[in-house]
Design brief:
Arc Repressor Mutant, subunit A; 4% strand; single chain; two-stranded parallel sheet; mainly alpha; 315 residues; 434 Repressor (Amino-terminal Domain)
Amino acid sequence: MEDHNFVKPNISDYLDYRKFMIDSYNFKKRNTKKFSYSRWAEKAGFKSRSFLRLVMLGERSLSSDSIRDVAKALELNKQETEFFFNLVSFNQSENFKNREFYLSRLMKTNVAKKIVTIKDSYRFLTNPLTPRVQILLAVSGIEKTPERLAKILRASVLQVNQALESLKSLGLAYLDETNQQWNTQTHKFSLPDSVGNIALQSFHQKSLDEAKNAMTLPSHTRHYSSVLLVLSESEYQALVKEYDDFEKSIMLKYSITDGKNKRVYQLNKNLIPVSEILTIVEHKTSITDPSTSSEFTDETTGASPKSSLCSEEIL
């Protein structure tokens, strides 16, 4: 098994700057004699020897000036420093507009392209718990033993162990022998869609079954909505692409940091035809006062039928 302490962390693989700092420290500590928090802080120009440790623990934050100092101590190049600056600003921003701003800057980098496509979807989806175990391994601050993961997911230890072994064989997770904790190799992943992919179809079927069963949960813990649209084939393809881009943006916006007071949610997307292709029948009509006929509403106002929406929260 590859020793991950010998692999230098790549900043573009991270959506949590504190996790990047922790991994960078562990890499330095393992590979450089006499390396310590004190030496690291001194290199960054900080008087407090414990400052960087407190930052990694989430007890302190980085200022705009200190971001550059830490980047220098991390030996980041110009492009990596810019990425680090945007990532820290995104993680620490409490204002929604600021988070949106730094999110857009991150989206312009290769981080949005760092989503790993899992090729062996059958092995990945055979155990429905596998994707959920994978996402939990990316959460910091929680215990990642089979026993703890089983309790979180309300599953048996045997099921979780099977999921972990599948992830290990796929190169998506590894066991840290020093603390017996499991870790992820990637924070973001997706599966290729294919009509002939039986495993993926089975996964979606089970997801739909779970969604139906979840209707009995308290209304503040789940949300259902539905929208009806009238689309051409080209509009349908454009909407699919727009939604795919939306998925990437929310993966960044709600990036995994710590697991305090959080839970795993699954967002399902279903865009399906509910009618045959429409055939327009032309009628010869006389000039009529629009105000006396509701049939002319769309033509006179310029409104489009596709603006008719139906959205409902099931209580």
